[in-house]
Amino acid sequence: MTVVRMMLTYKYRVKDATAGKHLDRHARACNYVWNYCCQIQRQAERRWKWGGNARWPSAFDLIKLCTGSAAELGLHSDTVQTICRQFATSRTAHKRCPRFRASGGPKRALGWIPFISRALKINGAHVTYLKRKFHFWKSRDLGGEFKAGCFAQDARGRWYVTFRCEVVDALPSGNGEIGIDLGLKTLATCSDGTTVPVLRHYRRYQAVLAVAQRARNKRRIVAIHAKIANARRHHLHEQSTRITRENALIVVGNVNAAKLAKTRMAKSVLDAGWSTFRNQLRYKASRHGARYVEADERLTSQTCSDCGAVSGPKGIAGLGVRHWDCSDCGASHDRDVNAARNILGVGLERQAPAVEIPSL
Ligand SMILES: [Zn+2]
After folding, report:
1. What is the CA 237 to chain-centroid distance, rounded?
2. Which residues have C-beta within 8 Å of that of residue 266, sequence separation ≥ 6?
3. 252 alpha carbon – ligand 1 mean position (Å)
4. How many angstroms does the Cα of residue 222 sit away from the middle of ligand 1?
5. Distance in angstroms between the alpha carbons of the first and the last residue of the chain
6. DSSP secondary-structure letter at 331?
7. Of 53-57, 160-164, 354-358, where does mean pLDDT reach its minimum?
8. Most buried one in 64, 154, 160, 223, CB count within 10 A?
């Protein structure tokens, strides 16, 4: 067992039937602060354009400019400061002025009200923010002290409250070792022969979606898409939890762009599935004190995992081959399971530190 510290985000649905209107009001005020930061930034850029020596306003500058505005806007001063900091971070990361956040109309920004721990109190299943109670569905306990968080809205207009907690963990881990080959037909094939299927919920919902689209029922369409996304996320969580619980070493193949190029599948969708799955494996492995390794997967589908000869199907023609026999030792292989075994082999060879803590 290993003790690990890491930041985790917990998200709860707010009972927003009546509280929603207060959150909406706060969100508008937050947008106001954000847009003010945008204006300051654009002024600085304009000055620079005309030859002036204008440096970009830092988070500190913005906070100073916003001093005293919190009370007038009906916000907590920590919230205003957090927005300024977030603005500066986002601008520096993208090297350009972030977009305005519209409070209404078709391009409305989804509500967002950040806070830090001293601005808000958690009491059982409600939080007190600006002297008002916001109840939420407490689906699980927080794993530690929360440092910061936000109220956030989804595309359906529902409100959630999220907390970033520092979690100290010593979760039990299994002692297995597993190699994972990420694929197209199945999301992942493991070296022990188990697979993680790609959920094609879209097909199941297609008929319902078509009805909603013909009826131009926007709310319904958004709801169905949210349902699909939820189901997909739940599925990945279930699988990654199982894998990290049972194993002490988890080796995953790195992305193979060549595999993607050969298909007409929506690259981005698939890509997102892979990276979500890998991220979940990485942080859950760290919570369970397991080792997570990413291994180079070149040649892993062509090498025999029994004798090491490169005797498997090669090239584009070989991509369709699901089963093959090794010409050297005669072992019969399922292509993906064999690849997963080789990936595990690569991971076992590599010497890595006992615990890899993801940088957050
Ligand atoms: Zn062989």
Report:
1. 11
2. none
3. 22
4. 51
5. 22
6. -
7. 354-358
8. 160
